[in-house]
Amino acid sequence: MSKQGTPTMGGLMFIGAVTVVLLTVGLPELAEGWWSGVMVLAFSMVFGAIGFVDDYAKVKKKRNTGLTAPQKFLLQVAAAIAFAVLLRYTGYLTPNLYIPFLNTYLILPWWVYMVFSAFAIVATVNAVNLTDGADGLAAGVTLPVAAFFAGLSAWGLYFWQKPEYGPLAIFSAGLFGALVGFLLYNFYPARVFMGDTGSLFLGGAVCGLAFALDVPLIILVVGVVYVAEALSDVIQVAYFKATHGKRFFRMAPLHHHFEMNGWSERKLFCVFGGITALFCILAFAGVAARFPII
Fold first, then answer.
1. Distance of CA 254 to the CA centre of its chain
2. Where does the chain cross the membrane (predicted)?
């Protein structure tokens, strides 16, 4: 099926929905001075705006890209560091890097943590962007991730007495609901694409929630599909160069390899989404000790 002519920038649909939910349902928390959700929303919107510039150039100006790769990289690094600094000085983030499943911390100097933050955020955001290559895939994979962060935020709010997690729970739940609605139009055969506007926003949201909850390494678990997609791209390029033209995968990133092996986009959605859901359940065990019932 040809996808030419399918509207893009559909990410604006769920960005708008999440914004409305946070600023209405979360109004009592905002009135009490808990701005964590707004910080994550603003951070996600910065990445969405970077994607919007590219989408706009492709749609309106008929160019392949709006920003050069170095420009996008520098903007993403700047946004990542600014967000980490903001979380640091508002008390949400500590230099004690929590290690899931081991229930221990790795204490890092702040400058090292900033470098780690920039790398982790930029890598994750672009990994989510790579995942957006089949109908419904990025939204379907991020759906259980949003549910995980909604559950974790609510857990911390009610059992760990963390009122600042309330807006994060609302943001996550709003994102979950918005993605369900978006999938009505984005599931195969897609009638609208989220574009870079949506995929970069989702990447920012995943990172923003993980860092605001001070469990950034959990991205490696809940984002197992993002990690696999990014690694497949890296492996493909490295193998191609090392073997002077041979390919490790039939095509990268990973979902294209499976497509070329006969998988339908519906099957990709179900399998990749199901794997993510299982790893999100596993992730709760990994952070359970971080948020004990007291």
1. 17
2. 12-28, 34-53, 73-90, 110-130, 137-159, 165-185, 192-211, 268-291
In a domain, 69, yes or no: yes
User: Per the structure block, which two tokens stand in for 125?
Assistant: 């955001």
Over its C-alpha atoms, the chain yields an Rg (Å, rounded) of: 19
Crossing angle (nearest 10°) for helices 137-159 and 110-131: 140
pLDDT, residue 162, reads 84
Instruction: State the residue range of the domain holding 275.
Output: 11-290
- DSSP state, 79? H
AA identity, residue 173: A
154: in domain: yes
Buried-exposed string 67-76: b where 16+ CB fall within 10 A, e elsewhere: beeeebeebb
The tally of domains found in the chain comes to 1
Q: What is the spatial distance between Cα 123 and Cα 197, in angstroms, rounded to a whole number?
A: 17
* Lookup result for tokens 């989702």: 202
Reported confidence tier of residue 156, pLDDT bands at 50, 70, 90: confident
Whether residue 244 lies inside any domain: the answer is: yes
Q: What is the pLDDT of residue 61?
A: 67
Residue 172 clears pLDDT 90, i.e. is over it: yes
Which pTM does this prediction carry?
A: 0.94
Burial string for 260-287 (b: 16+ CB within 10 Å, else e) reads eeebebeebbeebbeebbebbeebbebb
Residue 2 lies in a domain: no
Chain segment 261-286, per-residue pLDDT in tens: 999 999 999 999 999 999 999 999 88
Q: Which residue has the higher pLDDT, 75 or 59?
A: 75
> In whole angstroms, what is the distance from residue 255 CA to residue 115 CA?
30
- Two tokens at 16? 């708008």
